[in-house]
Inverse folding.
């Protein structure tokens, strides 16, 4: 089966066919760095990460661009209040945004263009629009005349006749009720303070929408494969991006538009006044595991509203334990013979996982297949057991799924030379015990604990070696020689 994605433009699931075979070019509306990102924003970034990872899993080479909006009405207002320069002000939020990506194991995009570093490209695009005759001036500002673009509204399915004649807005963000001409360039005014650029369009700054058209086309070409963002971006932002780009180039701008639904908290819209607007940092300070947060934000289908609850977060942590338990159980199982039931179970899990993900990234279905596999494999371990080669097969499939999910614990980070030393000491101790040389056995245990921060558990199958701090297994069970 082929990968199908729901395209907002056509309101249908469509088979995904990239422009260039084997390659996907994606543009993602990134953060406005005037404040810390809240977990709703991270829901959007995690959906985009899942999309990216699954495309890679499917063998596509991905080029993703995510813009950083480091100038807009909100950041300018904030700069006025704090007296800092725009650059100083946005730097800390930019840094926090990237730190958040790493914390949540969100893969980095290939490019993170910043608006303030692409003013020239925006000016050039506005000039192109002027040449096409779709721009007019009012009080020094330049506006896009949406009535000049007959397809205006094709993404959000708004009708142009809802446009009240001559209505226009200058603000970066405005409501659906206002189908309006929008600002491409805003002439400097006193409230902008130090924030302005001297350009051929005059002294001023770009509007918000032109940024995404200029930067996406610069890095991805005039027509590219996928554009993503939250549903709130669909109108007017994405509608305006289409109008600007297609009027300038005369070509289709984007083939597939994907929008994630919003995240709400405990059944309510996030808002500062309700006190339920959490940043990632808020949750980490409460002691929540970042991987559980990732899991929770990922595990509801992206087009469904996600209700973030603390119960749900606990559930996510439990789900992760179930996966990790299987990894631990595998390390302990060492049947002599291969289990003949295993291959069919793994093959079924792989094929179900893929057909769910192919169906517009049906992640809950895919996770269902994973957990049903975990249950069945655990039964095999309890029954006839798994051989070492069986265990590797299961681990391989888990690692493959984790390329998409990004939730498994990476193997403990110890250099391989240290792991070799540890294993040698564990074997020396086993030897000493076999010879009832308890003094030497204790010495080995002590060196392991003091010098290598490794603790041991003796089991019938052999010695389990755990990291002293994290309690995670450092290596597969060390079986005693002659077993
Ligand atoms: P912003 O920094 O406001 O431009 O938003 C960055 C991204 O987060 C955009 O794709 C928004 O559509 C998305 N977004 C904003 N609020 C939410 C929310 N509550 N749930 C999911 N996505 C959101
Ligand atoms: Zn955008």
């Amino acid at each position: 089966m082929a990968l199908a994605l729901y395209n907002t433009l056509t309101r249908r699931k469509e088979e995904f066919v990239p422009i260039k075979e084997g390659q996907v070019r994606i543009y993602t509306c990134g953060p406005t760095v005037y404040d810390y990102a809240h977990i709703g924003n991270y829901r959007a970034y995690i959906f985009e990460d899942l999309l990216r990872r699954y495309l890679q899993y499917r063998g596509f080479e991905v080029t993703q661009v995510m813009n950083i909006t480091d100038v807009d009405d909100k950041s300018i207002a904030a700069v006025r209040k704090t007296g800092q320069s725009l650059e100083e002000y946005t730097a800390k939020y930019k840094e926090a945004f990237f730190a958040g990506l790493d914390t949540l194991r969100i893969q980095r995009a290939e490019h993170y263009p910043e608006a303030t570093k692409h003013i020239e490209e925006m000016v050039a695009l506005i000039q192109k629009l002027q040449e096409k005759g779709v721009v007019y001036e009012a009080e020094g500002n330049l506006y896009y005349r949406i009535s000049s673009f007959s397809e205006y509204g094709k993404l959000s399915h708004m009708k142009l006749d809802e446009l009240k004649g001559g209505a226009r807005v200058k603000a970066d963000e405005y409501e659906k009720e206002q189908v309006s001409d929008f600002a491409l360039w805003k002439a400097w005014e006193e409230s902008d303070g130090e924030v302005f650029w001297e350009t051929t369009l005059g002294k001023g700054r770009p509007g918000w929408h032109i940024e995404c058209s200029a930067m996406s086309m610069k890095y991805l070409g005039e027509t590219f494969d996928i554009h993503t963002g939250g549903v709130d971006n669909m109108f007017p932002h994405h509608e305006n991006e289409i109008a600007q780009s297609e009027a300038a180039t005369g070509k289709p701008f984007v083939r597939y538009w994907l929008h994630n639904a919003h995240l709400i908290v405990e059944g309510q819209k996030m808002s500062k006044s309700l006190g339920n607007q959490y940043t990632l940092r808020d949750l980490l300070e409460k002691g929540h595991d970042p991987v559980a947060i990732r899991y929770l934000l990922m595990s509801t289908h992206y087009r469904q509203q996600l209700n973030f609850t603390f119960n749900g977060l606990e559930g996510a942590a439990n789900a992760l334990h179930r996966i990790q338990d299987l990894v631990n159980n595998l390390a302990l199982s060492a049947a002599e013979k291969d289990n003949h039931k295993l291959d069919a179970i793994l093959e079924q899990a792989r094929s179900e996982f893929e057909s769910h993900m192919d169906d517009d990234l049906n992640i809950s279905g895919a996770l269902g297949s994973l957990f049903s596999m975990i249950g069945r494999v655990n039964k095999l371990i309890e029954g006839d057991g798994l051989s070492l080669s069986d265990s590797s097969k299961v681990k391989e499939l888990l690692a493959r799924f984790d390329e998409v999910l990004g939730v498994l614990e990476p193997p403990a980070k110890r250099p391989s030379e240290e792991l070799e030393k540890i294993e040698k000491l564990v074997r020396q101790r086993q030897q000493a015990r076999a010879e009832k040389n308890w003094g030497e056995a204790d010495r080995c245990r002590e060196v392991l604990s003091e010098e290598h921060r490794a603790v041991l558990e003796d089991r019938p199958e052999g010695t389990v070696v755990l990291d002293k701090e994290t309690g995670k297994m450092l290596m597969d069970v060390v079986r005693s020689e002659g077993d």
